[in-house]
Write a structure and sequence with these properties.
Largest sheet: 7 strands, mixed
Helix content: 40-55%
Distance between the termini: 92 Å
Bound molecules: adenosine-5'-[phenylalaninyl-phosphate]
Order of helices and strands: HHHHHEEHEEHEEHEEEHEHH
Low-confidence stretches: none
Strand order of the largest sheet: 1-5-6-10-9-8-7
């Protein structure tokens, strides 16, 4: 290489290198600039390699300039590297900055569904009286849902209109939690004191007071000497615990195949105390069906109906929840609208 060319290239590389280094905006682009300016394939290295072919004086002259250029570029690289590292750190610190004076974000607690709250309340009132919780399957057979409950073949509750059958012979979605009465009595001897909360299904049009999937709580007490007044006293205690002291209970005759006598039970309104208001209409809130367990039902479960008597009752949880919270449309409980549900936050 001609020494004049070598000196020209060195000056060009110095200028180009300084510009590249100054332009590098990140550590990565600075390392790339270093490769271009001083790397193995750089023009600077090319000049250095050619030094050996120069005469001694020329080599000294060009070599001196080459050393100056390398030192200048290396110095600029080091300086720029330090500057970039400082910026990187500032950027990181900036991104990580936490304002400890900001108020905390409020954690929104989940809440129980109003039907769950009411179910727990009802069950708790009875477990405090010494009742045990019983359960049964939601898919029932004909025996437990109908036959053992003294619901004969011609009974309207058996028709396709009211029941939802599954694709297996004689299995259906239970229409009432009364089926759990049978399962309980089949599996134990008296005394029996149980409540059975659970989901029930009926083939019914959904409206403001009916769902096709709803919930009931069943109650059953079988022992020696149980009488109708025990039923009344128990339900009075229940109504007072649920709606507050001073509630009266009214029993009107009604028919359910599995009880005799059977009745419809109403409670004096907790809002107007029986005077009549927008919640109850005539002062009474219809709450549940009840009665003395039919001797045939006791016998169907292998109990001695001469020795034992019992009472049973069944209520709709949606119905109780509507009254409890003043909800006018049952469908609100199943629509999952957060605006409705969040009103029960902290209720239990
Ligand atoms: C029964 O289901 C009886 N098993 C109750 C019973 C038990 C009587 C033990 C005697 C002894 P009924 O069909 O009336 O009865 O239903 C009881 C309650 O379930 C009703 O008062 C109502 O609150 C609720 N219920 C009934 N059908 C629906 C429905 N489609 N949607 C919502 N709730 C319902």
């Amino acid at each position: 290489m001609d020494p004049q060319d070598a000196l020209r290239i060195l000056e060009e590389e110095r200028a180009r290198g300084m510009a590249l280094i100054a332009e590098a905006g990140s550590s990565e682009s600075l390392e790339a600039a270093k490769v271009v300016v001083l790397g193995r394939k750089s023009r600077f290295t090319e000049v250095q390699r050619s030094l050996g072919s120069l005469g001694e004086n020329e080599r000294r002259r060009v070599g001196k300039v080459a050393n100056e250029v390398r030192a200048a570029l290396q110095g600029a690289l080091d300086e720029r590297r330090a500057a970039l590292a400082a910026t990187d750190e500032t950027r990181l610190l900036e991104a990580d900055r936490v304002d400890v004076t900001l108020p905390g974000r409020r954690l929104r607690p989940g809440s129980l569904h109003p039907l769950t709250i009411v179910e727990h309340e009802i069950v708790e009132i009875f477990t405090r009286m010494g009742y045990r919780v019983a359960e049964g399957p939601e898919i029932e057979d004909d025996w437990h849902n109908f036959e053992a409950l003294n619901i004969p073949h011609h009974h309207p509750a058996r028709t396709m209109k009211d029941s939802l059958y599954v694709d297996v012979d004689a299995l259906l979605l239970r229409t009432e939690t009364s089926a759990v009465q049978i399962r309980t009595m089949e599996s134990q001897q008296p005394p029996v004191y149980v409540v059975a909360p659970g989901r029930t299904y009926r083939r019914e049009a959904v409206d403001a007071t009916h769902l096709s999937v709803f919930h009931q709580v069943e109650g059953l007490a079988v022992d020696e000497g149980i009488s109708f007044s025990d039923l009344k006293g128990t339900l009075e205690a229940f109504a007072n615990a649920l709606f507050g002291e001073g509630r009266r209970v009214r029993m009107d005759p009604d028919y359910f195949p599995f009880v005799e006598p059977g009745c419809q039970v109403a409670v004096s309104c907790f809002k107007c105390d029986g005077a009549g208001c927008s919640l109850c209409g005539n002062g009474w809130i219809e709450l549940l069906g009840a009665g003395m367990v039919h001797p045939k039902v006791l016998e169907n479960c292998g109990y001695d109906a001469e020795r034992y008597t019992g009472f049973a009752f069944g209520m709709g949880i949606e119905r109780v929840a509507m009254v409890r919270y003043g909800v006018s449309d049952m469908r609100l409980f199943v629509e999952g609208d957060v605006r409705f549900l969040e009103q029960f936050e902290g209720a239990a």
